[in-house]
């Protein structure tokens, strides 16, 4: 496994997203023992970055990660997020007020069974709290030793600049993959100018780019993808050819489609650490092996030129929370 820097923080360049173990996708919470084995296998294979959030479950995903890391905390970069749940009574749930951050972080520390969070992200920008106040509170938590590095998620470029002026931001976590190219235009250049790392979430397109999802019939009602425009109606059918294109490059490269989707992201720069999510040992092994896949210039070009996906990458309410 190769290691890179997100700002001042060293991480394995492939991390593990723990969300689907407890939240949002079909099968979440059904086999915690396998999820714990998956985290352990990732650590054994050199992964250091484990990603969770207060809102996954809610709460149960942090508890699961905490259980898995018992006795194995050293050397692990534990990343979690606040700000998508309000403990101060805001109906929207989006709350990065100083009071809410403090309550959220105390809860995360307890559930994770640790006395510090390596990388603490604001989950979504809060339009009702100036980013300076949010980052000011995060900086206080750093000074108190409860947080080591700070991050933002899906923040817009102006907000990133303002935040970084208050306290160095180690990483931005936003959606980036073969079918979500939005960060390339403005965000990545700014991050590079400021020396901030990038953590692509949903790097496998919520599993779609692996080519294993040919129908959504098996999704349970609580599966977020049921309301995702790319997974619904005609869009889903139209998007299937994207997965087929990824598969054809994979066959040529002697890799799996998931590995190609990850190798393409890794080829974008050594300041990028994707966090593919899985709750299965077999798949975490497959995804981590993407670290050894080198795509040819022609293969990267073919992937670069894939047509745009049909449908937005979140539903309308979700889209309104991005890029603020
Ligand atoms: N900051 C944010 O707002 C935000 C939003 C979404 C996600 N995230 C973070 O990003 C992480 C990853 O994103 P994600 O889970 O949404 O999407 P993803 O990594 O693109 O895809 C995960 C899905 O792909 C499946 N999968 C994983 N590896 C596979 C393989 N090799 N072959 C076939 N299927 C495979 C998983 O199923 P199984 O689990 O059944 O293997 C799961 O359903 C999350 O865990 C979370 O930590 C952050």
TrEMBL record:
Occurrences of domain NADP-dependent oxidoreductase (ranges): 13-306
GO molecular function, one term: oxidoreductase activity
Lineage: Bacteria, Bacillati, Actinomycetota, Actinomycetes, Kitasatosporales
Protein's UniProt keywords contain Signal: no
SUPFAM superfamilies xref list: NAD(P)-linked oxidoreductase
PANTHER family listed in its UniProt record: AFLATOXIN B1 ALDEHYDE REDUCTASE (PTHR43625), ALDO-KETO REDUCTASE YAKC [NADP(+)] (PTHR43625:SF40)
One Pfam family it belongs to: Aldo_ket_red
Domain of life (superkingdom): Bacteria
Cellular component, GO annotation: cytoplasm
Record's keyword terms, sorted: Oxidoreductase
Protein name: Aldo/keto reductase
